[in-house]
Specification:
- It is a single chain.
- The protein is of the alpha/beta class.
- The protein folds into two domains: about 290 residues, Aminopeptidase; about 110 residues, 2-Layer Sandwich (Alpha-Beta Plaits).
- The protein is about 30% helix and about 20% strand.
- It has twelve helices and 14 strands.
- Strand 1 and strand 2 form a beta hairpin.
């Protein structure tokens, strides 16, 4: 049998995506399916049912992660795992996360259709609370099972109503056994929508993801003096907002000269006392930057610390505080190469690229060989009801995963 010629059922994939979108579908054809909500429970129950119909066994671990296993010829060997997450943000889209889970489901359906018994087990995983939209932080469950987060702290995380993660997990009936955690695997494969405009703009169909970008996030605090907005002459003011404006402009100018692949954002600004008749005495703004190269991130931090001398004209004081950072996570080279080989076998136009957003695969990569592929997002939209990936692009992406799995589990 030439397994390279086996392809998925695109119409079935489309119908399955729409089935799952009904669990939390919004009026504008988006999805609200917050982690451990009633909508999430219904999606989980349906996922379990779909898997059991294929003869798969479904286990749940103590974080609510679901693992549906198609038995192989050598069940004592580490499995190939395909997965992502079923939860969404509020008024999100139909593809973010869920497409990666349904990729695994469609791959297994295709194996069963073609009477292929894999050499090793194939597991389809639904990882709990990737989004962090109801319970912070994001990527919570993959963080716990990879040893990045403390389980007790995560269990105590509360939503806006004061409900803890632990209580919600028990209420929907998906608190499982720690013994069921994913401990080893031949590979973890995650398909995800790009959530950005690059593939569409370059008319490419697949992104083979090499890494998740490292990043730093700082708060920059500018302190001046409040005075009356109508009676204080301009030369006698210590206006914290004017000073902050100067700093933002300077930061943008300097950061733009570092590297074309660097992305940076000043996404939050708090002004005090925030009254139109009072000169601002304090401004705090955030500055985060992302890049794959540690040396570039180091240069970013040098620029940020250098900003403390840049508000002298307004006679304001500046303090910078590092909030958090993460190192670049490079995916397993062998798994990345398997993805690339599969894309080439299907003759889809592609590029190697990086991920600026975080994904479960980055935590799992710390103890399981992992990699990702992206499929295009129309207009780069994501975390939005307008999120869209064409059915044809969904099908292409799942075919890449299928070919990769076939290469790993068949002789």
């Amino acid at each position: 049998m030439n397994t390279q010629q086996i392809l998925i059922n695109g119409e079935r994939l489309k119908n399955t995506i729409e089935e799952f979108a009904d669990f939390g579908r919004t009026e504008n054809n988006g999805v609200t399916r917050l982690a451990l909500s009633e909508e999430d429970k219904k999606a989980r129950d349906h996922f379990r049912s779909c898997c059991e119909e294929l003869g798969m066994t479904v286990k749940v671990d103590d974080m609510g992660n679901m693992y549906a296993t198609l038995a192989g010829k050598n069940n004592d060997k580490p499995p190939v795992v395909i997965g992502s997450h079923l939860d969404s943000v509020k008024k999100g889209g139909r593809f973010d996360g869920v497409l990666g889970v349904l990729t695994g489901l469609e791959v297994v359906r295709t194996l069963v259709d073609n009477n292929i018994t894999p050499e090793v087990p194939v597991v389809v995983a639904n990882i709990t609370n990737e989004e962090g939209a109801r319970f912070e932080p994001s990527m919570m469950a993959s963080g716990v099972i990879s040893g990045k987060f403390d389980k007790s702290k995560m269990m105590a995380s509360t939503d806006t109503e004061g409900v803890t993660f632990e209580k919600a997990l028990n209420e929907i009936g998906y608190a499982g056994d720690e013994a069921n955690r994913l401990k080893e695997a031949q590979a973890f494969l995650e398909l995800h929508i790009e959530q950005g405009p690059v593939l569409e703009r370059e008319n490419l169909k697949i992104g083979v993801v090499e890494c998740v970008l490292g990043m730093v996030c700082y708060d920059i605090e500018v302190n001046g003096e409040s005075d009356h907005a109508g009676t204080t002459p301009m030369p006698m003011r210590k206006d914290a907002l004017f000073a902050a404006n100067n700093l933002i402009a300077e930061a943008r100018e300097k950061l733009s000269k570092l590297d074309d692949n660097l992305v940076y954002t000043m996404g939050r600004v708090n002004v005090s006392p925030n009254i139109h008749t009072v000169i601002p005495n304090k401004v705090v703004f955030s500055l985060e930057a992302r890049h794959q190269d540690a040396e570039t991130i180091k240069q970013v931090e040098e620029i940020i610390h250098g900003l403390t001398t840049s508000a002298g004209k307004e006679e304001c004081n500046v303090n910078v505080t590092k909030l958090w950072s993460r190192d670049t996570v490079w995916f397993d080279e062998n798994v990345v190469n398997e993805f690339e080989k599969a894309v080439k076998s299907l003759d889809y136009p592609y590029k190697k690229m990086v991920s600026g957003a975080g994904h479960d695969a980055q935590f799992l990569q710390t103890y399981i060989p992992s990699a990702m592929i992206f499929v295009p997002s129309v207009n780069g939209k994501s975390h939005d009801e307008d999120e869209l990936t064409s059915w044809e692009d969904c099908e292409r992406g799942v075919n890449v995963v299928l070919q990769t799995v076939l290469s790993m589990v068949t002789n």
